[in-house]
Amino acid sequence: MEQSRNETPRANRVHIGFFGRRNAGKSSLVNAVTGQQISIVSDVRGTTTDPVEKAMELLPIGAVVIVDTPGLDDTGELGGLRVARTKSTLSHIDLAVLVVDASVGLMPEDTALLEQLSLRHIPALTVWNKSDLVQAKCEIPHNTIAVSAVTGEGVETLKNRLSMLYQQELEQQSTRKIFGNTLKPEDLVVLVTPIDASAPKGRMILPQVQAIREILDDTAMCLVTQPEQLATSLRMLQKQPTLVVTDSQAFAQIKEIVPEEIPLTSFSILFANFKGVLKQAIEGVNALEMLPEQSRILIAEGCTHHRQCEDIGTVKLPKWIGAHTGKAFQYDFTSGDTFPDDLTPYQLVVHCGGCMLNRREMTYRAALAAAQGVPYTNYGTLIAYLNGIIERSLLYLQKIED
After folding, report:
1. What angle do CA 243, 244, 245 make, to 5 degrees?
2. Cα distances (angstroms) measured from residue 187 to each of 178, 182, 184
3. Which end of the chain is more exposed for a tag (fewer CB within 10 A), N or C?
4. How far is Cα 334 from Cα 379, in angstroms, rounded to an integer?
5. How many CB atoms lie within 10 A of CB 256?
6. Burial bucket for residue 76 (CB in 10 Å: 0-12, 13-18, 19+)
7. Mean pLDDT, rounded, of the chain
8. Contact between residue 154 and residue 148 where contact means Cβ atoms under 8 Å apart
9. Residue of 76, 65, 73, 96 whose CA lies nearest to 24
10. What is the rounded CA–CA span in Å between residue 299 and residue 184?
């Protein structure tokens, strides 16, 4: 049975953000575009106090996440925090809709947001809402869309223009795949997936599922096994596998089992390449040896989950880093969308593989570190480095690039 579109992973959905000043009618327009009561609507300025996200199907685009944000002109101490939350959503938005109150016109906050969208290369549409209240439609700029969330005027046009904008974005990007275009029907990929205390009960983690699906889509073959069964699995094969992909945490064990002539890498390294941050991760890992005692290291994860007693981010990585360097460092930990704008207090950022974050947010976080001169790496690259197999784990990636 074909998987429901509603089961599309959040990181693979098109994130569409609606922005604008208070009382511009963002929430009303979101409800009109989606045909659902996603956001609370009232005449009170600033009704939306936090970003509201809704995963859904929006034709003709498909699987999306609609993001309704607080007003750009909110005031006071709490208002400033709301504006900051609004701006933080820019890091994972694929398409933006700036909603302008047509009865007021473009304001400084609107212009400032358009500049931010341009700097981040986020495709955007400007819509003039409440067009039913504007007598002279010629007052609305020709390169924008006149809409009315009340009458429905221009809503279908907006949806079609969003679809066209998304298609243009796809056409400008090269087709990205986890394994590139390297897999052939006769290829066999062995996936090593530990089932331990940190594994989600009754299911597999997203990178493993995505890897399996891409292998099958390319009509290649895959064998899924646990570290303890890997040696037996390799002996049972009649031919050498094309590639072995392991969970990063098992690198130390797996490197001793897989012969040197068989390419070996990790899910995290493949996804760092897939999401456009691998080059920076490789460069950043070299900074580890030069860090002085008591340096501050930020360990960041893109999702929030219950911490286990042997959690990879808060327990294992600090332990492995300390054992490798012989130094004591200070660690800070973030998760979800709490990635800090100011990274200057840190001498190194170590990020997770970002399976729950889209490519735009991952590249944004890496670029933010680069702009502030802070080395940036990721879990898989760092663990491969600590195990002395960074060069081996990158060999298959050269084949993808070629």
Report:
1. 115
2. 15, 9, 5
3. N
4. 14
5. 8
6. exposed
7. 86
8. yes
9. 73
10. 37
